[in-house]
Amino acid sequence: MTDPIYRQVLGADFYSLQPELQEYFSLAPGSGTFGVGEGVFEVVGCRQRWLRPLLRLTAGEQAFFPEYGEGVPFRIENHAHLDPFGRSSLTARREIFFPGRTRIFQDTTSVEAGGAGSHVPGHQARLVDYVGRYRRLVTDLDLSATAGGRLRGVSEVSRLFLGPLRLPLPASLDAKAYAEQWWDPAAGEAGRHRIQVKVIQPQLGLVLVYAGHFAYRLEPYPAGNSSAGFLPAYARPDRWERRS
């Protein structure tokens, strides 16, 4: 199925989102276009200094990073495609321009049948998020539309894939991400998208936070490529993961 993945999972609730969010989340495989957002994070990174050396060890995964900043420019690209296993997916690649260093944070969200996370009566589509350049950290996403038309997402049970091993993370070690995205018509001259994300670990507290605003547009792929499986080489992970 090449319908937008968020529409597949939210069902009728998708149309409760603000119109600008519906447009943002309507990117589908084979459209011949990708999304580009450019803006500023008012806050981004790890506020806890004592935790940053640990995050520095994982920075190469392109999932977490040790820096913290305010007023930091960023760019995000959204690519809708079928992954190598035929699942409708959305790959996001973020570049965060800290002073003196650019960090990349990437993930692929794929839709699967079965499990929780769907608001479609009688349908059990769910979103599975594969985080980092090696897609070793995997989590389920639970989505909902708020009364005000915002999109709210919460990550559920996470697991690590290390070679042949599938390692579910116990609740005491797992970190949960709480995300909210909305359209702010009062921001800028013509309104802007806003996003806020917090990653909280029970033992460590707030591990990562980012909140900011951005403008968003669609751009065509070079040579008009409209294959449903197309993903630019620079946006591909170093490895794909089929298991969930």
In short:
With 244 residues, this protein is mostly beta strands. The chain contains 3 helices and 11 strands.
Q: What features would you highlight for this structure?
A:
244 residues; mainly beta; 11 strands; 8% helix; globular
Description:
By secondary structure, the chain is mainly beta. The chain contains 3 helices and 11 strands. The model is unreliable at 116-121 (pLDDT under 50).
The biggest sheet amounts to: 10 strands, antiparallel, barrel
Give helix and strand order, one letter per element, not per position. HHEHEEEEEEEEEE
Radius of gyration: 17 Å
Average pLDDT level = 93
What structural class is derived from the secondary structure elements?
Answer: mainly beta
Per-chain topology:
Blueprint: H1 5-10, H2 19-24, E1 33-45, H3 52-58, E2 68-82, E3 88-98, E4 101-113, E5 125-131, E6 137-145, E7 151-162, E8 165-168, E9 176-184, E10 192-201, E11 205-220
Antiparallel strand pairs: 1-2, 1-11, 2-3, 3-4, 4-5, 5-6, 6-7, 7-8, 7-9, 9-10, 10-11
